Amino acid sequence: MQTIKPLNSPSFSCKILINPSKKSTITLPRTRIPPLPSPSPPSPSSSNSDESKIFPLKIDPPKLNAFQKIASNALDMLEKSVVTKLEKKKKLNRMVDPEIQLEGNFAPVHESPVQHGLDVIGQIPSNLTGVYVRNGANPLFEPINGHHLFDGDGMIHAVKLDSKNNKASYACRFTRTSRLVQEASIGRPVFPKPIGELHGHLGLARLALFLARTSLGLVDATKGTGVANAGLVYFNGRLLAMAEDDLPYNVIIKEDGDLESNGRYDFNGQINDPMIAHPKVDPITGEFYTLSYNVLKKPYLKFFKFDTCGNKSRDISISLQNPSMIHDFAITESHVIIPDYQVVFKLSEMIWGGSPVIHDPNKVSRFGVLSKDDHDESRIKWIDVPNCFCMHLWNAWEENHEESGDKTIVIIGSCMSPPDSIFSGSDEPLKSELTEIQLNLRTSESTRRIIVSGMDLEAGQVNKTRLGQKIRYAFMAIAEPWPKCSGLAKVDLVTGNVTKFLYGNDRFGGEPFFVPSTKEGRGGGEDEGYLMSYVRDERKEKSELIIVNAKNMKQIALVKLPKRVPYGFHGTFVSSQDLCNQSYC
After folding, report:
1. 570 appears as a binding residue in the annotation
2. First to last CA, the chain
3. Phi and psi based region of residue 187 (left: phi greater than 0; alpha: psi -120 to 50; beta: remaining)
4. Helix axes 200-215, 66-78, angle to 10 degrees
5. What is the DSSP letter of 79?
6. pLDDT by residue (tens digit) across 362-380?
7. Cα(146)–Cα(94) distance, rounded to whole angstroms?
8. 327 assigned binding-site residue
9. I need a labelling partner for 272 at 20 to 30 A (CA). Which of 216, 301, 554, 562 fits?
10. Is 278 part of any known ligand binding site?
11. Is 392 annotated in some ligand binding site?
12. Are 501 and 530 in contact (CB under 8 A)?
């Protein structure tokens, strides 16, 4: 097995909170990323959890002419002696302070090649033969200044499950985005971080440095600037990794459970727009729906629809007065539900020293209802839902109002308040309440009902074979203490009853993913299936994958992981059948 050779650039240390009363550090060398073809994987016993060893990837530094070298050195000197020095004098709020954002199990880890023969406690259910993958933010380099939880480079953690032999393996890999590969070749971060760094005049200075580097050919922004760290979806033979700021990246799951990046995916040249992190696949038709927003120019929002073979059938511009933060949306059997919130992008705020992501108190949040069959936006119906911001929408469906009989859209989402708290660092405690929103299509009126009060419920799932249809249950992460998750909650959307599965003292996890117990969810109850999530025992310093019976919320299996798995974002399960049908081109 090869080990990493020290590079000329120095190491850096991130503070890690192991116990509330005990601090230690983990040192991550400023290394180049590992190669795509990994050598023979080591056994768990040979590598343990040694995060100082990764496989080296030789990425040649960019070839510059004499003028470019002079210009590059001048810009580097300007950045170091002026911009960075001024940034060090500025106090960071807690939402962009790297010592807080990268503390404890939020700290980054190195890649891990496949490790087989993991300890499995209990029995892996028979229909869970496949790979559970979960995305997350894992910065390759030490932040120069501000760093938000959403800013890190995308890393996918994968556990391959073999239910027949009750075996499991683990691997984690960076998604080789254009941004990551370019920064690895240069040896340091040069792309500005949208949330952590782009604040006020110094944020404008960082933008100016980046634009200067791109105009001189020192970096290439035309191949994408995104980190692909948020969503994962399997569609038409491809696992796609996404964030809001770029096209998705195709990631191949290899036969042994390892992961290999396969470049940006533009649907065979059909789109060149960034895609939000939460596209929807209609469980009845198999069609793929997604949105794309642009913060710089109109149209600020686009809607795309693709058939089951990945052919684009809709490309609709949606008129918005200002670019809005739209991380998620919803579909019903016949409609697409598009939010337009009070959290907006206003780049001019940077001139006055502020953040470009702001809460606009003069704007009224609203939802647009667009028919799936429409070819333009002319028939979209907008309905106001005041003071509403849902980072995520879990499902939506159509029904007739029980009293008036009016056609109604029902939306299930987690409403956050204050709406911009995850960006602004507000001192007001964040609340995320599971909420039902009803849109009356005849009267254009809306109502809201908090389903569960007094509990922060985020990062959730429904049975995706019922997406767009009326459901009874939602499976949520208990986001307490924020941003950690102390357990899982099965919520009865009709009665509001909550059945909890708590991880235990000093144990925290993330979003659960629901896998139905019957093929394609047919013939079984809505809650007949399994929940999967990574869990970190902060006291014992161990990571696990847990499998919970969604019917009774009891744990049935646990996989002991050989590496620390940081807290992350969203995941999916790729079945053995889907693995066989992957597209490699």
Report:
1. yes
2. 30
3. left
4. 170
5. I
6. 899 999 999 999 999 999 9
7. 10
8. yes
9. 216
10. yes
11. yes
12. no
